């Protein structure tokens, strides 16, 4: 224990007593080490774990923001986006005088970050400076040290400097919003949209498969007029299609990059054309149509593109909540519920009730939707707090959106594969409920009028008889006339 306390003090550069709580956190952290090297920044020397590529500023942040633990780390897509951006920056900076040997080493190191090979060297949590400066410096330090290694230097030698070389022509204020946009655009395109498109395809297929099955409709959770099960599923498919269109419609703003605005949007310490060239390099690297933002002041001070995109994700969550709820209610039972749908049975549902199977995919999806709605609230608050030339809620905004994209993408894929694809129609149950419904009386309106039709429905309900029996008893219609008028197949669309 004494050795651990000494190591803690050595790492922090402090002689202050270490609390048991701080010691507990540090010794349980996977970044704890008893072997250190010295790194320096403008605050002076600090001890850094000898086997880690980060430097002084990352170490200070790691110690100053012990908030939330490992689960609150900066999202992996942000880290990989830093690799993409720093590689492109080095490529462009070589055109403006960066030493080629250093530039090429930076590009190689940055590619390793983009490939996820150095992710363990990015320990910082979301809850840090609101500009993301510490994470930008984490990227600069890791890439600088790794590039130095590639060139044959020891860690900490700064043969490749994190600020002068890796961060050349950049500020955290334009770098972090740029990686936010890169990460979000990549994740939406590669994770979310493919899952939603597959879900739409499956729902559309079910709408075609079920198009001949006539069932009773429900409004206000009460019996209504008939429609086909296919028509019902076509509504679900269209909701998802519109969701795809909505989130896709937010991408043009997401493709606009802040890089080149530097500290406040003016482009101080960059060369003319740097912003356009780096956007083109990112576009080439990601195969996505990134461009330089037309107004860098907006790009630094506001994150309306994220609020807009999150709004589309929130709408998708609303849609999927409705779809999942409908499907689980229509599949309720198996004997005492609506029972119109037969849902796939994936696992036992109860630890006490033998044979019980639950609509677990629907439940998982609805929980995801609730989380996405909550993320949108937090992101909206963050987006509204851009003060003067800089929004300082960036890490939270980025994390919230990426969390929603990941959840919706994964949950949509799971729901499609493990639920929608295997849904069957319980035709016998559907037919039984259809012919028991009092709302078939609606097709009598043109013949006997609304008031008389209502009297038929009320009498049938009160006496527990069929609509036909009630109509004949009241002398409203003959048996032949009733049979000619009350045909469910003629109630699922406009008449000629």
From TrEMBL:
SUPFAM superfamilies, per the entry: L-aspartase-like
Catalyzed reactions: (S)-malate = fumarate + H2O
Domain Fumarase C C-terminal: 440-492
Signal peptide: none
Annotated GO CC locations: mitochondrion
MF (Gene Ontology): fumarate hydratase activity
Superkingdom to which the source organism belongs: Eukaryota
Name the record gives this protein: fumarate hydratase
Lineage, top ranks: Eukaryota, Viridiplantae, Streptophyta, Embryophyta, Tracheophyta
């Amino acid at each position: 224990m004494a050795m651990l306390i000494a190591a803690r003090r050595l790492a922090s550069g402090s002689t202050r007593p270490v609390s048991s709580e701080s010691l507990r956190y540090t010794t349980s952290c996977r970044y704890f080490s008893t072997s250190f090297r010295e790194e320096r920044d403008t605050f002076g020397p600090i001890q850094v774990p000898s086997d880690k590529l980060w430097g002084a500023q990352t170490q200070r942040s790691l110690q100053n923001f012990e908030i939330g633990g490992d689960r609150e780390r900066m999202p992996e897509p942000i880290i990989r986006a830093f690799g993409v951006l720093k590689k492109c920056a080095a490529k462009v900076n070589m055109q403006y005088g960066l030493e080629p040997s250093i530039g090429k080493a930076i590009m190689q190191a940055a590619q390793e970050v983009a490939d996820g090979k150095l992710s363990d060297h990015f320990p910082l949590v979301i809850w840090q400076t609101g500009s993301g400066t510490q994470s930008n410096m984490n990227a600069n330090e890791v890439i600088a040290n790794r590039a130095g290694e590639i060139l044959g230097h020891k860690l900490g030698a700064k043969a490749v400097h994190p600020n002068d070389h890796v961060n050349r022509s950049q500020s955290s204020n334009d770098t972090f919003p740029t990686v936010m946009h890169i990460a979000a655009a990549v994740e939406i395109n590669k994770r979310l949209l493919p899952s939603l498109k597959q879900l739409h395809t499956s729902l559309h297929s079910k709408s075609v498969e079920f198009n001949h099955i006539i069932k009773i409709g429900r409004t206000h959770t009460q019996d209504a007029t008939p429609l086909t099960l296919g028509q019902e599923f076509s509504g679900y498919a269209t909701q998802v299609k519109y969701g795809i269109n909505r989130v896709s419609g937010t991408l043009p703003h997401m493709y606009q990059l802040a890089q080149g605005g530097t500290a406040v949007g003016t482009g101080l310490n960059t060369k003319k054309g740097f912003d356009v060239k780096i956007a083109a390099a990112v576009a080439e690297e990601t195969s996505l149509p990134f461009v330089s933002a037309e107004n860098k002041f907006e790009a630094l001070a506001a994150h309306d593109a994220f609020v807009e995109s999150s709004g589309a994700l929130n709408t998708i969550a609303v849609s999927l909540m409705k779809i999942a709820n409908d499907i689980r209610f229509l599949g309720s039972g198996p004997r005492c519920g609506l029972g119109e749908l037969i849902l796939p049975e994936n696992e036992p549902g109860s630890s006490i009730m033998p044979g019980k199977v639950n609509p677990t995919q629907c439940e998982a999806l609805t929980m995801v939707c609730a989380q996405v709605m909550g993320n949108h609230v937090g992101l909206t608050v963050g987006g509204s707090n851009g003060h003067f030339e800089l929004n300082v809620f960036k890490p939270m905004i980025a994390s919230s959106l990426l969390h929603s994209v990941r959840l919706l993408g994964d949950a949509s894929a799971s729901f499609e594969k493990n639920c929608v694809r295997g849904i069957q129609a319980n035709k016998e149950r559907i037919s039984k409920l259809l012919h028991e419904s009092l709302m078939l009386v609606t097709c009598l309106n043109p013949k006997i009028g609304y008031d008389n039709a209502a009297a038929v429905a009320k009498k049938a309900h009160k006496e527990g008889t069929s609509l036909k029996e009630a109509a004949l008893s009241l002398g409203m219609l003959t048996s032949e006339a009733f049979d000619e008028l009350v045909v469910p197949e003629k109630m699922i669309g406009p008449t000629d």
